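Problem: given the chain below (160 residues), write out its structure.
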Amino acid sequence: MNDVIVQKLKEKFPESIDATNNFRGDLTVQVKKNDIVKVGEFLKNDPELSFDLIVDLLGVDMYRPEGRFEVVYNIYSIKNSKYVRLKVLVDEDDCEVPTVTDIWPGANWHERETFDMIGVKFTGHPDLRRMYMPEEYEYHPLRKDFPLMGIPDSIPLPRK
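Solution.
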């Protein structure tokens, strides 16, 4: 099945697919970030593939000069009982990715969480606001340059 998916994606989007990796049967497809919506729509709407469920979406801080952040989409085809992992690389100075909530509405809260914890903004998201941290909080706690003990006085705490 992985070969079929890769072949279809490379035929349909030859410029959008940066890399593929098939490790122990788990397929990872690295997609250009501005093409994630059209690749996602194809994977969902292709009658043979039918990746109709987003299982998870998360952000990873790789702390490298280029492509510092990765946004990872784990999608599932109920019809084929098959998982595929999509990945986009995001630079720190252009920290935005198009939202996939129009394709998979289940991505809504995952994108909000990724924005809150990592700082990747999802353009076109219907309600992109923080989930855990206060709205006015200017930091993103899961970035690797965030101090382990937090930033003193950055959050007003309730008094005893």
